[in-house]
Amino acid sequence: MKIDWHAFMQTAPAVVTTLRALNQVIADSGLEKPLTELLKVRASQLNGCAFCLALHVDFARKAGVSQRTLDLLATWREAEIFSAREQAALAWTEALTLMAQQRPSDEAYGQLCQQFSSQEVAFLTSSVALINAWNRIAGGLRFAPASVS
Asked: 39-57 pLDDT, tens per residue?
């Protein structure tokens, strides 16, 4: 029997509560909501998590991210519309998300530190870790995008 989003919430409510609490801590950190949503969309693209992708594309739009930005996100290096801050955060997101294939580089970390304070780096890294956790839950259990609520 497949576990969908609603069944997961009923089966593991403490997990959902804990992950949501971490999300709130990150939201309260001062990082820009449009930026954190872009990172969640990019990680979800890389991880192939349809549930999280649908959810965070919607959240990104509500946070003011333009459709053009979302359309070009998969090609952010070539698109030339992303700020240096967004580029550093996206490179770090990809490095952390794909770290099983290759260790995050000192260059990516250095570029991140040029654009973000130490506190921002800590919360941004936590945000990427959190979406990767959600991607593994929702993607692994194959939550349907239509079940987002």
From this structure: 999 999 999 999 999 999 9
pLDDT, one tens digit per residue, over 104-122 is 999 999 999 999 999 999 9
As a whole number, mean pLDDT of residues 119-138 equals 98
Domain hosting 69: range is 14-144
CB 57 within 8 A of CB 70: yes
Please check whether residue 69 lies inside any domain of the structure.
yes
CATH code where residue 30 lies = 1.20.1290.10
When divided into structural domains, the chain yields a total of 1
Distance CA(73)–CA(118), nearest Å, equals 25
Joined together, the tokens standing for residue 27 give 């939201």
Contacts of 114 (CB under 8 A, 6+ apart): 84, 88
Residue 107 lies in a domain: yes
